[in-house]
Every structure is written in structure tokens, then in C-alpha cells.
Amino acid sequence: MPYRAIEDPAKLRRLLEATLLLEVDLELPTLLRHLIDEARSMTGARYGALGILNDERTSLVEFITVGLEPDEEEKIGARPTGKGVLGVLITDPRPLRLASLDSHPNSFGFPPNHPPMTSFLGVPIKVRGEVYGNLYLTDKTGWSEFTRDDESLVEALALAAGIAVENARLHQKVQDVAVYEDRDRLARDLHDTVIQRLFALGLSLQSMAVAAASSGMTERLDAAISDLDDTIRQVRSTIYE
Predict the structure, then answer these.
(1) Which pLDDT band, with edges at 50, 70 and 90, does 209 fall under?
(2) Cα distance between residue 1 and residue 174, in whole Å
(3) Which of 51, 58, 84, 180 is most buried (most C-beta within 10 Å)?
């Protein structure tokens, strides 16, 4: 376990606080952004990002950044998909710590308008043993590179994040089931109440049509009954949808 390599009580306490805060955020987008913030805070990283992998685990389908201003992100353009150094963690999901991004053989350089970044720390996030995404940190403030303690801290945080992500998914599933059950109940209520009332009204109109045969109202009542039947079919179709 990565936390066993952390001997500083203050850092362990900070890790515990960050882990507990992760458990508070059950909405996945909020949780992921909070994870990046906590990792940056614990390591002193200027920039942080989290890339979420596609189902095949071959590239990034979502890339969340923290530390860049909105106009800076806009100038950079398209989000990364997992090439270069970012892709190393996709093909080899193990922690990667570099004093300089340029020193890695897979470094492609930065796109135009991208702020310069030097030191790098990347850690995979696993959910149920499968890689869910990768946490990236760059430019440790006041240091030339991230330390082994930083790596252990972020590994432990990523472990807790994997559990939190799974909890958030389960929470969303529970909500979805509750919404489905509520919609199903509403549909039954609509069907039992609205359809029955419309049907009763149709029967009433039919009985009126018999009495109105001698008064010339039959055609008008037949047309109303036909319209009512169409309405019942449309309402029933809408309820089932």
C-alpha cells in the first residue's frame, strides 16, 4: 500500500483529510475536480489534470484541467487524447515521475499557446482493478521535481479516489433506479386515472348518441367519440414512452 511509505504524521493527516473530503462529493464531476485540487494542494503542483479513459482503455475521452485560466485553455485548443508522455500511463499504468518532461523519449512538445511545464508526476486511478483514468501533475512550486513522498501521497489519494468514484457510480445508479420507479408509478397513476376517466366519458357520449339519434346530433357525437378515442391512444402512447 502506498501510504505505508509515508512516515511524516502531518502528511498522513493531510492525506486522511483529503480522503474524507473525497467521500463527501458523490456527484462524479465535482468529485473528480476536487481530487485534482487535493493532489495539487498536497504536492504543491501548479497545474493538475485528470484524463478519463475510453471503454477500450486506448485513449482519453475526457480531460479535466485545474490551474489554467479559461482564456489559456481556449487558446490551447483541443484537449489531449493521450499522446506523448500522457499516453505512457495508458500503455503502462504505473506511476511516472520526471524532473523534466522534455527528457522523456515520448515527449512530443507542447502545442502552440501552451504554458511551459517542466516537472511531472502521473498516477493511474483504478476502479475495481481496472484503470479508470490518470491523474497528472506538473510544475512543483519551489522545487525542481516532485519527490518520492509526493508520489506516495498521490498514489494513496488515487487509491481512495478509485473507491470514491465507484461509490459515486453506485449513488448515481440508485438515483436512476429511484427516478425510474417514480416515473413508473406516475405512469401507472396516469394510466389508471386519466385513461379510465376518458374511457368513462367516451361511454357516456356513446349513451348520449343513442338518445340523440332522433334530434340530429348523432354525427356530431360520433365525431366527438372518435376524437376521444384518438386522444386515449395518444395519451397511452405518451405514458408508455
Answers:
(1) low
(2) 31
(3) 51
Residue 166 pLDDT greater than 70, yes or no: yes
Q: Tell me if the pTM is above 0.90.
A: no
E-assigned strand segments in the chain: 45-53, 60-66, 96-98, 120-127, 130-140
CB 176 within 8 A of CB 38: no
SS (H, E, C) 76-87: HCCCCCCCHHHH
Contacts 24+ apart (CB under 8 A), 142-149: 142/44, 143/44, 143/119, 144/99, 144/118, 144/119, 145/97, 145/98, 145/99, 145/100, 145/119, 146/43, 146/45, 146/97, 146/119, 146/120, 146/121, 148/5, 148/97, 149/5, 149/6, 149/8, 149/11
Neighbours of 209 (CB within 10 A): 17
